[in-house]
Amino acid sequence: MLKDKISFITGSTRGIGWATAREFARNGATVILNHRGSAALLEERCLELEAEFHGTVMGLTADVTDAPAVKNCYAEIFRRFKRLDVLVNNAGILQGALLGMITGETLRTVIDTNLIGSLVHLQEASRLMGRNRRGSIINISSILGRFGAEGQTVYAASKAAVIGMTLAAAKELAPKNIRVNAVAPGIIDTEMTSQLPPEKLQQSIAGIRMGRIGTAEEVAQVIVFLASDMSSYVTGQVLGVDGGMIV
């Protein structure tokens, strides 16, 4: 489904990002991994993908909140491949706090990572995709960005802003044949959701109509669809992957 597509996935060494990288490689894409920290971990993940799927893999170290480093990533992608077909704007951070306990540091960290970092990537990707007048950008939002949740005001605000960013960019970039969509996962079995208190997690699962939390692979398969030509007439959409969750 993604044969020969040059694909960049941010935050792709674990969770939904790593599952997406594996599904992209399985479907024939050239996969560019990203991690903000350990170069050794990034190299290890690249070698894993190459060994299992025998495709082209590259790793780029950059924090999404470091705009110059992000720009350098796209310069390197252009130098190596001359184009970009798919961006998965996945890197994100979850820091919960009740309203009265939200610190300035938490506010800046979450907004800088989830919103501003995603926006900078969207800018850079759209410029590169615009050279060939085609591409697909998938922004990872959250069910909390659509419905909110107690103790998650900052996170919900950042992910709601990602949805607004998606809808606006879809309108602006459609004439260039660049599609922009969002995926809004519910409770997914990742390291991020493992941070939730056990009682809060069980309460959330009780509100899922399908009676279970989702897997990162189930989210990744939806992302593959949006990245592929099977969704060539789909833009400006927010696809929930939440098992019928009620927040």
What does this structure look like?
The protein is of the alpha/beta class. It has one domain (6-241): 3-Layer(aba) Sandwich (Rossmann fold). It is built from eight helices and seven strands, in the order E-H-E-H-E-H-E-H-E-H-H-E-H-H-E. The protein has helices spanning 15-26, 39-53, 67-81, 104-130, 144-147, 153-173, 198-206, 216-227, and strands at residues 6-9, 30-35, 57-61, 86-89, 135-140, 178-185, 238-241. The chain has a seven-stranded parallel beta sheet with strand order 3-2-1-4-5-6-7, sandwiched between helices. Helix 4 links the parallel strand 4 (86-89) and strand 5. Helix 1 (15-26) packs across helix 8 (216-227) and helix 3 (67-81) packs parallel to helix 4. The protein is globular and about 45 Å long. The model has no long low-confidence stretch (mean pLDDT 94).
What is the topological layout?
Layout (H helix, E strand, L loop, with lengths): L5 E4 L5 H12 L3 E6 L3 H15 L3 E5 L5 H15 L4 E4 L14 H27 L4 E6 L3 H4 L5 H21 L4 E8 L12 H9 L9 H12 L10 E4 L6
Parallel strand pairs: 1-2, 1-4, 2-3, 4-5, 5-6, 6-7
Helix pairs in contact: 1-8, 3-4, 4-6
